[in-house]
Amino acid sequence: xxxxxxxxxxxxxxxxxxxxxxxxxxxxxxxxxxxxxxxxxxxxxxxxxxxxxxxxxxxxxxxxxxxxxxxxxxxxxxxxxxxxxxxxxxxxxxxxxxxxxxxxxxxxxxxxxxxxxxxxxxxxxxxxxxxxxxxxxxxxxxxxxxxxxxxxxxxxxxxxxxxxxxxxxxxxxxxxxxxxxxxxxxxxxxxxxxxxxxxxxxxxxxxxxxxxxxxxxxxxxxxxxxxxxxxxxxxxxxxxxxxxxxxxxxxxxxxxxxxxxxxxxxxxxxxxxxxxxxxxxxxxxxxxxxxxxxxxxxxxxxxxxxxxxxxxxxxxxxxxxxxxxxxxxxxxxxxxxxxxxxxxxxxxxxxxxxxxxxxxxxxxxxxxxxxxxxxxxxxxxxxxxxxx
Length: 388
What we know:
Elements lengths: L13 H8 L6 H10 L9 H9 L5 H16 L2 E8 L18 H5 L8 E12 L2 E10 L11 E10 L6 E8 L2 H20 L9 E2 L7 H10 L12 E9 L21 E5 L7 H4 L7 E14 L2 E12 L12 E11 L5 H40 L1
């Protein structure tokens, strides 16, 4: 398909540019960063403020092209979520019922019937690898015409299910790129969950998902902080490079403590960039946890798998379909690598293998720290009940 609009030789401005910027394909941060590159610095990244500002300027073809490519690269980055199901018994066969779940192509078509402008390049395919099931697929997205960019893009998705050890639990790892693959993953996990529940293999049709509402403020900050701990022999203790913090509008009043009182009636959201932010007072001192919540944290770890070692930068956040709802109770915990640097040269296949090992190690880390928080909560609740 030929481009309707040549992004390398044309300038988009005014109302036409506004249409593009207000679309879901361009993020708040991408607009904010473009403004900064043009010498326009503002504190609020909300589109109601940034879109009129950028629309009133002229973007050069290079600036416009960079804006689009940044958006495409962001969408194409694999993003992960972890969820689980409790098994009803130890010896239950959960693999056989799923073997032919997507054998009929119509089952794949039903996954996208309400999602516009996409089609499957590769239908969902179940691969059985020992005690693990992997569902892979690839889609093609067409027609950006409403946003002035007409092109075709391919995106992949994956759902992995496995039982680890002797736990009565099935662990899921979903990997999506675009919003469309995120929706398809939800439908795939819902179909798998219903099939297993109907056969009395899992206890509930609804999987266990880590969401914003899974924690109170103190637990949530503690959870993020513990993610810096890493995993022995795989991922070392990490350093925090970026934190996004929101004050809790429903939280207690900020005290007259000079460390935090300056935030009264002046700050709603703080983004802190730097290096080794682990020890800033908002993270290191638990007495402040009740007043705010962390929306996003970027951590850099060293990894080591056999002969391969290096660094990876990881984003942990609660994601939502809307920026305004990113702190809603059902916003789901998401993590993804933004950068992987190896100490030695690796070919493409080795890079993919290391990326997968990092992905699974991060999944293990997330589940471990989440289980710790829940276990501590239950212990505290039981202690209170005994005391009363």
